[in-house]
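Inverse folding, one chain.
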């Protein structure tokens, strides 16, 4: 089982930047091939896909709403996944979660049900 802990959230004005980190423990990346994703959930809304990255980091996908502004990356030596968020907008305000994709899923998944381990989330608040 993999434990995931997010950090780096906070409050920022529109146009600002934040970098989220997700630290994995338990079964380390080197022993457990897995794609990783970031999701977010705003109050009263469903959890939505933000970005995903393959085991090697060679493949990434993004939600249309963040494409060109957010960048997902990973450092398998450090067991960490990152989400660099630039040009933040008030509509980016949400709790952000990292998640591990199910090993049985091929490619990079966008549905929350395709992920089987989740962190506790980190709050991102963007003011106008």
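Residues assigned per position:
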């Amino acid at each position: 089982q993999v434990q995931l802990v997010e950090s780096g959230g906070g409050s920022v004005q529109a146009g600002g930047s934040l970098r989220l980190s997700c630290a994995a423990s338990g079964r380390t990346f080197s022993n457990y091939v897995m794609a990783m994703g970031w999701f977010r959930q705003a109050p009263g809304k469903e959890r939505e896909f933000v970005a995903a990255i393959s085991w090697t980091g060679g493949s990434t996908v993004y939600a249309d709403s963040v494409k060109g502004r957010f960048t997902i990356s990973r450092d398998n030596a450090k067991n960490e996944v990152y989400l660099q968020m630039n040009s933040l907008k008030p509509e980016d305000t949400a709790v952000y979660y990292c998640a591990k994709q199910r090993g049985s899923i091929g490619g990079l998944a966008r549905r929350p049900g395709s992920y089987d381990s989740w962190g506790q989330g980190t709050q991102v608040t963007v003011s106008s």
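The chain is about 0% helix and 50% strand. The chain has a mean pLDDT of 93.
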